[in-house]
Design brief:
The complex is a heterodimer of chains A (about 450) and B (about 375). Helices cover about 35% and strands about 15% of the residues of chain A. By secondary structure, chain A is of the alpha/beta class. With about 375 residues, chain B is an all-alpha fold. The chains are: A alpha/beta (about 450), B mainly alpha (about 375).
Chain lengths: ~450, ~375
């Protein structure tokens, strides 16, 4: 008897609590329980064959467009180890505020304002997956924009392609975004990682033909991209990789690895890591008294990271598709003037000298060009336009005289870029030689195992 | 007479509530909500299952684990790899995932015989830290073409479809994930109730409360402790399998494995240790509170403007403060505290003392 009464009371309390939560968690009703199961339908088929839209549900082709507003979503780390990428959001938000103040983006003769919904995923692919579910099905966004991370986007690619949601300008230079199985994805203007390696290997061939390389890479898909492409590129050349070491991508602790690499007798250092791992590695190399010729991932090109790198950062090479906002020589460039003025106006907390803010700003400008290139405002047309861009020019802080192109046979954007060298005394980077134009080369230069994985 | 009537009324109310709950969870949520909401509930369910398992170990048996994210991970990766690279249907992977996590639970349970309390917590923490290194080392590309170095990338939608034999009202992938997780909760709940009332359940509690006394009455301490670990790991493994249906991938980082382990523990403590439904309620709180806090957060407080980036930082802080407050107000969790409050209300109402419930067994 005692048991039964205890049970009943318990159940009442439990159910009461659950109902309270249920009410709190109320949302909108399910519009159609079958949408996720649509196998084939009479979707709109594009005139060209880049995107096959026969699988797409026509009912959601214009989801996220209401009146004169286009709602887009993004998931990125705003907390945790990678929270420095918050700066991307600042740059993007500033650009969209600026664009909306001018009336918005024009698509097919009509102006639309852009509304950006951002969600924090702490760089955890499982959280990105939940965020994207919410963005697509609850927030009802039109497209995803500049979602950060290689593994994070690998974790949503079936969803975005099955639902035909454009996953535009992915903040990752991985080459998987060129896999023809997943047409609804497009990488951003970040230089594809194999092209970074190609550029540096070319530089070595001209300046240090028998370089002995020590490689540090993050132990995730991102770091592997550098490793596999570098191994591929040095084959058959006098250049050798004398030692490799990986570090835990969730942290930025690389001291032990760099000390090891420094002892290997290598005269060249390739740094396939990102964010804090970069300055940490530069400091560790300096502390070990090692003075190699250093190449650092383009994802680390940021005033703050260079400063943190201290003396070790002097003379470091990297690549960038964008102008350095901390270089006074660029100060009079009208694009730079506009950027500094508008970011200061709409995101006063942002550091306009930070390359990561500049990246967010410029990527938002590329999105504007993609939307404006689309003949109609529906998901398939926009994706088609993104995959066949005749030429992106002067987007945000895009390096002058460079053009970013995509076509049916070339799905990579940031293939024209600048080799740069950091000068510690002056506190900014300077261009080395002319622009590197490897347009259309990414697919050829990437290991097939990476491209199709 | 009045006593029996009151009892009858309460029984009737309970039956009605159970029917309503069955309707709401069994029909209304999966049939009328958007997939993002059903996925979120499914997440609450599988976290609840793992928390129920942890509660068996921590609540009933008194062994602390902050490494259950690893057992969860074993179930997750077993299911994901079998589905992705061997083409197994989801249901067929469940027994394998359960067996793998059970076996790992036995392995971890043996050292747990030697170490107790904080030291055991440290051993399990080591497991949580070790697990992502195992996936980085042993989940190679050639085993699974879409795997990264340590991740099983998103599974194709066709692989996550409900199989042909399920009733036709389970038509979409999110509904399948939801009903599977719900079934895991229901079965897990029934097993816990039966186990807690069985000879084994009494042995669990006896070992927790007084090991030496338990031994003198003939309980095989080693067997009970190792089995508690293994069963608890099995629950976490099943939960990990459900994760694959809900999140459609397998991923493990030392941050995420540790965070999951802590979430299970928070669910147990918030819901009420050594109570049957406590961990489930705790899981619902853990999963929904973050979303609820960030959604209902005002964009201005007094004259301060709060932008999204600040909100993103504040909502975990608010969750943490809420947790501290809850522990002050209800140190025995929502279920334990709720039971205490209704009891004292009952006493005031009736003006007499109602017989206290036996801790642990009654729950």
């Amino acid at each position: 008897m005692k048991h039964a009464r205890g049970e009943i009371r318990l159940r009442t309390v439990a159910l009461g609590a659950v109902f309270a939560l249920l009410i709190a968690a109320c949302g909108s009703g399910r519009s159609s329980s079958n949408t996720t199961n649509t196998t084939a339908g009479g979707g709109t088929t594009g005139t060209t064959s880049v995107i096959n839209a026969s699988q797409c549900d026509p009912a959601t082709a214009t989801q996220g467009i209401t009146g004169d507003t286009i709602k887009i979503g993004t998931s990125l780390p705003l907390s945790g180890t990678y929270s420095a990428f918050n700066a991307i959001l600042q740059g993007e938000s500033a650009y969209f505020s600026y664009l909306n103040s001018l009336g918005g983006v024009s698509v097919a003769g009509k102006k639309y304002k852009i509304e950006l919904v951002s969600k924090d995923d702490a760089y955890d692919a499982a959280k990105t997956s939940t965020n994207v579910d919410t963005l697509i099905n609850s927030d009802k966004v039109f497209a995803l924009f500049n979602t950060v991370g290689t593994k994070n986007n690998l974790g949503i690619r079936e969803t975005v392609n099955a639902d035909c949601v454009p996953d535009l300008l992915i903040a990752s230079g991985a080459v998987q975004w060129g896999n023809p199985k997943y047409p609804f994805m497009l990488g951003s203007e970040l230089v594809p990682y194999p092209l970074e390696m190609q550029t540096f290997v070319n530089y070595l061939k001209a300046n240090k033909p028998s370089a002995k390389i020590a490689l540090l890479y993050a132990n995730d898909d991102f770091g592997q991209s550098y490793r596999e492409s570098l191994q591929d590129l040095v084959k058959g050349t006098p250049i050798t990789i004398v030692k490799e070491a990986s570090y835990n991508a969730e942290g930025a602790d690389v001291k032990a690895q760099v000390t090891d690499l420094a002892a290997s007798g290598a005269d060249t250092f390739v740094l396939g890591g990102t964010l804090l791992a970069c300055p940490n590695a530069l400091n560790a190399a300096h502390d070990a008294g090692w003075k190699p010729l250093t190449y650092m991932s383009g994802t680390c090109v940021s005033k703050l990271l260079f400063q943190l790198g201290g003396d070790g950062a002097n003379g470091v090479l990297s690549v960038t598709p964008l102008l350095d906002p901390s270089d006074p020589a660029n100060g009079s460039n009208p694009a730079m003037v506009l950027y500094k003025q508008q970011v200061a106006k709409y995101q006063p907390k942002a550091d306009t000298g930070d390359g990561i803010v500049a990246y967010g700003w410029s990527t938002a400008a590329v999105l504007q060009q993609i939307l404006e290139a689309s003949p109609k405002l529906d998901r398939t047309s926009v994706m088609e336009a993104a995959r066949t861009l005749a030429g992106v020019k002067a987007a945000g802080l895009q390096v002058p005289n460079s053009t970013w192109v995509t076509s049916a046979s070339d799905w990579f954007l940031g293939e024209t870029f600048q080799l740069i060298k950091y000068n510690k005394a002056e506190g900014h980077t300077t261009a080395i030689g002319p622009l590197t134009d490897l347009n259309g080369e990414t697919a050829k230069l990437s290991p097939a195992s990476l491209l199709h994985s | 007479m009045t006593f029996e009537r009151a009892q009858f009324i309460r029984a009737a109310v309970a039956v009605v509530l159970v029917i309503v709950a069955a309707y709401v969870f069994g029909w209304y949520i999966p049939q009328f909500y958007e997939s993002s909401t059903t996925y979120l509930w499914a997440e609450a369910f599988y976290i609840g299952v793992a928390a129920m398992g942890l509660n068996l170990l921590t609540g009933y048996n008194g062994q602390v684990s902050i490494g259950h994210g690893a057992f969860f991970g074993f179930g997750m990766y077993t299911t994901a790899i079998l589905m992705e690279s061997h083409g197994w249907p989801f249901v067929a992977t469940l027994p394998v995932a359960a067996a793998v996590s059970f076996a790992v639970g036995v392995l971890v349970g043996f050292p747990a015989l030697r170490v107790k309390g904080l030291y055991l917590a440290l051993v399990t923490l080591g497991l949580a830290v070790l697990f992502p290194q195992l996936t980085a080392r042993f989940v190679p590309r050639d085993l699974c073409p879409t795997c990264g170095t340590s991740q099983v990338g998103e599974l194709a939608r066709s692989k996550l479809r409900p199989p042909g034999w399920v009733p036709h009202f389970i038509s979409a992938n999110d509904q399948w994930a939801y009903y599977v997780s719900l079934a895991a909760v229901v079965i897990g709940l029934i097993v816990v109730v039966l186990m807690v009332r069985s000879r084994f359940g009494r042995a669990l509690i006896a070992v927790r409360d007084h090991e030496a006394a338990a031994e003198t009455v003939g309980i095989n301490i080693a067997r009970v402790k190792v089995l508690a670990f293994a069963i608890s790991a099995l629950y976490a493994g099943i939960a990990g399998s459900c994760f694959v249906l809900v999140k459609r991938l397998a991923t493990a980082s030392s941050v995420s494995v540790f965070q999951l382990s802590i979430e299970f523990l928070v669910a147990v403590v918030v819901g009420g240790t050594a109570t049957v439904v406590g961990p489930l309620i705790g899981a619902v709180v853990v999963v929904f509170s973050g979303r609820w806090i960030s959604e209902s957060f005002p964009s201005t407080i007094l004259f301060l403007h709060i932008d999204d980036s600040v909100k993103n930082l504040l909502s975990p802080a608010i969750f943490g403060i809420g947790l501290i407050l809850l522990m002050y107000v209800l140190p025995d969790g929502i279920v334990g505290g709720g039971r205490r409050l209704t009891m004292s209300a009952w006493r005031k109402l009736r003006g007499r003392t109602s017989p206290p419930a036996l801790k642990g067994i009654d729950a």
